[in-house]
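Audit log entry. Action: structure prediction of a protein-small molecule complex. Ligand: S-adenosylmethionine. The ligand was supplied as SMILES and no pocket hint was given, so placement is left entirely to the predictor. Protonation state taken as written. Sequence taken verbatim from the request; no trimming, no tag removal. Recorded inputs:
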Amino acid sequence: MDQTHEDTATFESGGMSKAHLEAKLLAAVTAGVPQDGTPAYFDWVSELYSLMPDHLARGKFLEKLISENLDWMGLDQNNGSVKVLDYGAGTGFLSQAFVPYVSKILAIDNSGGMVDQFNKNAAGTKYSQPGCEMRAVQGDLIDRYNQHQAIDAEIADPAGDFQSFDLVVMCLAIDCFVTDAPNDVQYTELVNALDILAGRLKHDGLLIIVDIEKFYGDSDAASEAFSDGRKETGSGSKEVIAALNEIGMEDIAVIENQEFKVQMELFARQKATYEQYFMVRARKGEEGDD
Ligand SMILES: C[S@@+](CC[C@H](N)C(=O)[O-])C[C@H]1O[C@@H](n2cnc3c(N)ncnc32)[C@H](O)[C@@H]1O
C-alpha cells in the first residue's frame, strides 16, 4: 500500500540546538571530513546522527512502516522469542522500530562511533522496553574497504550468538558497501553481500531490507528522478529482488512507494528531504545453508 509520511522536524524534538548542529557541520567542512559513506565519515557523524531532527523523523517513519506491516512480514509476535540481526545498524533507528515485537537485537556496524551511539541508545531502551535485549558490536562481514577489520570473535564464532537469526534486517546500508563500479560489478557485490547476510539466518528465517528506491525511468529525465524522491544510481528494489532470487531465497515480496518527506531549517534555509522507500521481504528456504 502506498504511504506518505510527512513531518516538520524541529530542533526542540531533536535534543540538539540548531546553532550546535550548524557549528558542527561547518567545522567538519573546514576540517575536510569526507562526506561519504566511509567508516571515517560515520565515526564523525555518529554523535549527531540520532539527534538530528530529520533523522528522528525518519525513525518515526520506520516505526510506522514496521508496525503496520508485521503480518506482511510474517513476524510471529506470539512466539515470545525472536532474535534479530540489524546489519549496518548505525545508531539503531531500524532496531528501535523492531524493539516492541522481538526479544533480542544484535547489531553490527563497521563504524566504532556508530556502535557506541547504538549502545547508548540501547541502554535507554532497556528501561522503557525491558522485554528486548539489544547491543551492537563493531564488525564488517562484507569488507567494502578491504580493511580486513578483525571480526569480533563473538561475531565469527560458528557456535555463538551471532548465528541462526530468526530475522536479519538492514536499512540504508547497501549503498555504503557496494562500490561505485559499473552496474554488473555492483550487482555481483550485492549478491555476495546478501548471501553473507542470509548465511546468518536460521532455516525459515526472514530477511527484511528497507532502502531508497531507484528511478527506473528514462535516464534523460534525471531531474525528474531527483524530485521524485528516488535515487538515480546504485541498487533499488529490482536489483535486491533479483539478487535474493539468485541466492535462492523464497517468498520474496516488496512494498513500494513509501514516501518520506521532512522539512527543517538549516543555515537560514529550508532543507527539504523527500525520499521514496521500498521494503523487501524474503525467507530462507528449509533447504538453505544454515
Ligand atoms: C546510512 S547509515 C544507516 C544506519 C541505520 N541502518 C539507519 O537506518 O539509521 C549506514 C550505516 O551502515 C554502516 N556500514 C557501512 N558499510 C558497512 C559494512 N561494510 N559493514 C557494516 N556496517 C557498514 C555505516 O557505518 C552506517 O552506520
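Audit: result stored. Residues 166 and 205 are 5 Å apart (CA to CA). Residues 37, 39, 42, 88-90, 93-94, 108-111, 114, 140, 142, 144, 171-173, 176-177 surround S-adenosylmethionine (CB under 6 Å).
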